[in-house]
Design brief:
Length: 389
């Protein structure tokens, strides 16, 4: 059998013939589902030749599912409890895009203070998501000390979310017309202190994990995404930037107050698991810096909510729109259709996980050693509920 791996630039989207297991030469093995959060609630159906993977099929649907149809049965405000579950480690992007889609159709403009607070919320979410991802990537390669460090600091960020929104995970903070509240007293001082501590943590993580000879040996050359694969496979976010593309919606099509913040698009070239991991470390540092900038620039007074009708009985005008933002994993988009009633007609969510965890994962897994499949899965940074939505 000839193996076609992710290292090849030649793209072949033809469905390969199923491997014949009757000879006894090959073995089928299931990876998952478990539930460590990042990729564990999906399952991989693997066929092995010794300890080398020769076929991979992704199976999803082991967690929350069916969100898009659920939203067609609820009022606009009720759906905020639904959209948060589509990407549990970073629900704020779903909140923002759902609210932004409603605002675009309704012609509602959130006040400046709300836009700064929304940006702060999204960058805090990016930081929390990256800290969780670093722990997952470290744990996949046996770096459990790093996982304990990063998940502890994610909890510290969640503490601040609880202060800001009243909830640690599902915030329902960004609503049509703005946000639900301003910042509590002393919040700015506490978040800046945490950013200083997080900088020190990231220095430690870089020394312990990224400079570790075993991590380098296992991650370098693993799951290479070539430049030629990026567009055909729909690769976005850090996965695309690690392969040399300088694409980031915060810069390319600015929204909220990102055009008032000072930052550059970070990119790499190798396109392997190590490059993706190191690029995400740099983007974690970048989020820390952006949070500091938002705290410095956000107005301390003024309205944080536009004048709105009763959201429990709001008939949104008929229309359609597509809005998008740069989440932790790349372009995240909402296509919404309304018909002038109190219930949304149609919502379609474009999340990065669909392409990264199915077409891309099934391609990159071929030729990979079974010991490295968990590390490869985490390096693509996917959230399975976003697939079975």
């Amino acid at each position: 059998m000839t193996l076609v791996t992710g290292h090849s630039a030649a793209l072949d989207f033809a469905q390969p013939d199923p491997v014949d297991l009757s000879s006894g030469k090959y073995v089928k093995l299931w990876q998952g589902p478990q539930h460590p959060g990042i990729t564990g609630n999906m399952s991989l159906e693997l066929v092995l030749d010794g300890d080398t993977i020769i076929e991979c099929k992704t199976h999803v649907g082991y967690l929350h599912r069916g969100f898009e149809k659920l939203m067609e049965q609820r009022t606009f405000i009720q759906n905020f409890t639904v959209v948060c579950r589509i990407a549990v480690p970073e629900p704020a992007f779903n909140e923002y895009l759902y609210a932004a889609a409603i605002e675009a159709i309704s012609g509602v403009q959130s006040p400046p203070r709300a836009q700064w607070l929304r940006t702060l919320n999204l960058e805090m979410m990016r930081l929390a998501s990256f800290l969780m991802w670093i722990g997952g990537q470290g744990g996949a390669f046996g770096q459990y000390t790093v996982a304990n460090w990063s998940l502890t600091y994610r909890d510290y960020v969640l503490d601040l979310f609880e202060e800001m929104t009243g909830a640690r995970i599902y915030h329902m903070y960004m609503v049509p017309g703005g946000v639900r509240a301003g910042l509590p007293a002393g919040f700015e001082k506490r978040i800046l202190k945490l950013m200083d501590d997080t900088d020190k943590l990231l220095d430690q993580i870089e020394r312990v994990m990224y400079n570790n000879v075993v991590f380098k040996a296992r991650a370098k050359g693993l799951g290479v995404i070539t430049r030629e694969m990026v567009d055909p496979y729909g690769v976005v976010g850090p996965n695309a930037r690690a392969s040399g593309f300088r694409r980031d919606l915060r810069k390319d099509e600015p929204y909220l107050v990102y055009d008032q913040l000072d930052f550059n698009v970070i990119s790499g070239s190798a396109g392997d698991a190590y490059e993706r991991a190191y690029l995400r470390l740099q983007e974690t540092r970048q989020s820390v810096n952006l949070i500091r900038q938002v705290i410095a620039g956000a107005p301390s007074d003024g309205p944080f909510q536009a004048d709105m009708p009763n959201l429990l009985h709001w008939k949104v005008p008929a229309g359609e729109t597509y809005v998008k933002a740069e989440c932790t994993r790349g372009e995240y988009g909402y296509y919404m259709v309304t018909d002038g009633t109190e219930i949304v007609r149609r919502v379609h969510v474009r999340g990065p996980s669909y392409t990264h965890a199915i077409a891309l994962m099934e391609r990159l897994a071929v030729g990979t050693n079974i010991a490295d499949i968990a590390g490869l899965m985490v390096s693509l940074h996917t959230y399975p509920p976003e697939i079975e939505r």
